[in-house]
């Protein structure tokens, strides 16, 4: 049983491998056919380019034929005029105007030579038209062969797609083939578009060919036209010349307007670039001012905190000195009262020697107290001077802070104005550009 299962699995694997190889071969064939189709499409594009070149040459030849036609018409008209003049004036003045007749004959000969040259050029133009016609026929044949090849490729591809769709186990290859089919459909659409374009061009070329043949027939029968037809042709030529001049004037005016619009657009672009640079500079200045403002505010806050701490310390010291001074004043008053009592006791005592020794001791104490009082007064004066200096420094810093705040407010106002002007400029420039584009 196990061997049977292994054998059946091996058979299935071989069958799938053979199917996979078959599908890979089919995919390779499809790729080869797709490459051939791409080569055919490239050849078709080259043929189309050759056809476009032929159409361009045909247009140049048509312009040349029109010029030759005009020259032939002018030569024929001059020839008819000279022949009429020679027929009417030759008989009565044969003996007197012999030189004029010779001149007229010479001019007629020159005009006939020019007419022959124009006819030769016309014949060459006809031959070139025939050559271009043969080229277009060859291009049509190549297009038909490419179309038949594409049809064969499409039928074979559809058959392969039909065979591949039957194998549900190879979805990856099916997706690749679907992609190739989409590419073939796109190539078919492009080929159809090229074929339609070629048909349109061929129809236009056929119409131009008919028009050219009619023009050639008209040129061959132009000698039979009357003077009125010549006058009408001259009027038509004048009208065409006037129309051409008017068209040239309109074209020149359009060119001038376009150049002015281009100059205006360039000026606006330069103005926009300048405005953008100014906005960028203003933004950089604003960012710098904001950073300086933040740094200044932090510095001012630190200085303010330091000054507040110093002022609090000075006030505390001043209060301590005032209390100490008050205490010293109390001691001084006590010492003064004691000294007064001692003096009174010294004057009223009976024992002068003992009183003299007590007075000397009291004087020594009094001098010490006076020196202490002097020192305390000096310390008080120094503390008062330091307090005044701190007050003046605090006042100066307050004024400096006020000045810096005013400068900061002015800077903020200037910055807001610059931002508003930048926004207005950025909003006005696209409107101006759109207005110019709409006007052009």
TrEMBL record:
It holds the Pfam family TPR_MLP1_2. Residues 208-335 form the Nucleoprotein TPR/MLP1-2 domain. Keywords: Coiled coil. Residues 6-197, 398-425 form a coiled coil. Residues 341-361 are annotated as: Disordered. InterPro entries: Nucleoprot-TPR/MLP1-2_dom (IPR012929). This is TPR/MLP1/MLP2-like protein-domain-containing protein. The lineage of its organism: Eukaryota, Fungi, Dikarya, Basidiomycota, Agaricomycotina.
């Amino acid at each position: 049983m196990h061997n049977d299962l292994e054998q059946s699995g091996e058979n299935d694997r071989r069958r799938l491998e053979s199917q996979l190889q078959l599908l890979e071969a089919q995919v390779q064939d499809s790729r080869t056919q797709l490459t051939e189709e791409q080569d055919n499409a490239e050849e078709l594009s080259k043929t189309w380019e050759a056809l476009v070149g032929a159409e361009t040459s045909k247009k140049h030849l048509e312009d040349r034929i029109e010029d030759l036609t005009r020259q032939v018409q002018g030569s024929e008209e001059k020839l008819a005029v000279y022949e009429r003049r020679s027929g009417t004036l030759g008989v009565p003045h044969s003996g007197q105007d012999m030189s004029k007749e010779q001149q007229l004959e010479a001019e007629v000969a020159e005009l006939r030579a020019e007419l022959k040259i124009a006819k030769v050029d016309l014949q060459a133009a006809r031959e070139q038209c025939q050559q271009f016609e043969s080229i277009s026929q060859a291009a049509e044949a190549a297009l038909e062969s490419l179309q038949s090849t594409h049809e064969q490729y499409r039928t074979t591809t559809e058959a392969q797609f039909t065979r591949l769709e039957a194998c549900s186990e190879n979805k990856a290859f099916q997706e690749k083939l679907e992609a190739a089919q989409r590419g073939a459909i796109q190539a078919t659409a492009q080929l159809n578009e090229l074929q339609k374009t070629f048909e349109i061009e061929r129809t236009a070329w056929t119409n131009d060919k008919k028009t050219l043949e009619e023009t050639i027939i008209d040129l061959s029968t132009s000698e039979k036209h009357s003077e009125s037809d010549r006058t009408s042709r001259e009027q038509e030529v004048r009208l065409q010349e006037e129309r051409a001049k008017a068209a040239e004037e309109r074209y020149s005016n359009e060119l001038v307007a376009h150049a002015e619009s281009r100059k205006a657009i360039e000026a606006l672009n330069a103005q926009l670039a300048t405005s953008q640079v100014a906005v960028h500079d203003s933004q950089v200045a604003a960012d710098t001012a904001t950073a300086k403002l933040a740094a200044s505010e932090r510095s001012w806050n630190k200085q303010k905190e330091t000054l507040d701490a110093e002022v609090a310390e000075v006030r505390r010291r001043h209060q301590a000195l005032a209390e100490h001074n008050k205490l010293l004043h109390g001691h001084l008053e006590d010492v003064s009262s004691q000294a007064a009592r001692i003096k009174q006791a010294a004057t009223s005592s009976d024992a002068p020697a003992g009183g003299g020794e007590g007075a000397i001791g009291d004087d020594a104490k009094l001098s010490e107290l006076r020196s202490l009082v002097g020192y305390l007064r000096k310390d008080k004066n120094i503390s008062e001077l330091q307090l005044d200096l701190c007050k003046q420094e605090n006042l100066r810093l307050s004024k400096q802070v006020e000045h810096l705040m005013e400068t900061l407010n002015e800077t903020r106002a200037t910055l807001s104005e610059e931002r508003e002007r930048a926004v207005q400029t950025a909003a006005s420039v696209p409107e101006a550009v759109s207005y110019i584009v709409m006007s052009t």
